[in-house]
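Dissemination and training. As part of the outreach component of the grant, students in the summer workshop were shown how a complex can be specified as a set of sequence lines and then modelled as a single object. The example used during the hands-on session is reproduced here so that future cohorts can follow it. Participants entered these lines:
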Amino acid sequence: TRKKMVIPGVGEHPLQYNYTFWYSRRNPGRPASTQSYEQNIKQIGSFASVEQFWRFYSHMIRPGDLTGHSDFHLFKEGIKPMWEDDANKMGGKWIIRLRKGLASRCWENLILAMLGEQFMVGEEICGAVVSVRFQEDIISIWNKTASDQATTARIRDTLRRVLNLPPNTIMEYKTHTDSIKYKESPPSLLFH
Amino acid sequence: GTRIIYDRKFLLDCRNSPLAR
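and obtained this result:
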């Protein structure tokens, strides 16, 4: 078991897990290698209670107000928001692409569901990401075991419920091993 | 073991607590 670095204060409501906020931003036009990804990602801080969460969140910029190529990551304390982390390497993520204007509300609903243990998949959830891009925004939720179809189906159904998305919203599940393969050798079709 | 479950409304209500500021 991981050592808990922060504890709930007196009178506060403890969370099932401690979490850490991270922020990353990529300089335009510079492809990110694994190393530079790790260097670009900054820890904002960790919390153990509902009240500590709000103290961070209330002072953070809303994703919809971010510019450029930026991401907020909220992961269980001790799990790095990277494919290579032991908790993530056999895992995958549900990805939802959002038209501009929806990211702030969807991100808040997603992380409140995660902190409140709404997904009901035991230890499976690793964390969540909101990625701000030029044309669209992307939210994703990462879990430990990509091959566990009962878990991934339950996460999908919970996402549909808590995000209250339009019925035509496309949800895509991607394993991290596919993401790594794709990054290392993109399908040749792309270049025909 | 038991899990600590909170719904969205409860979490949003906690935002107004003096402890959350």
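Residues 188-192 of chain A have pLDDT under 50 and may be disordered. Students were then asked to discuss how this feature might be tested experimentally.
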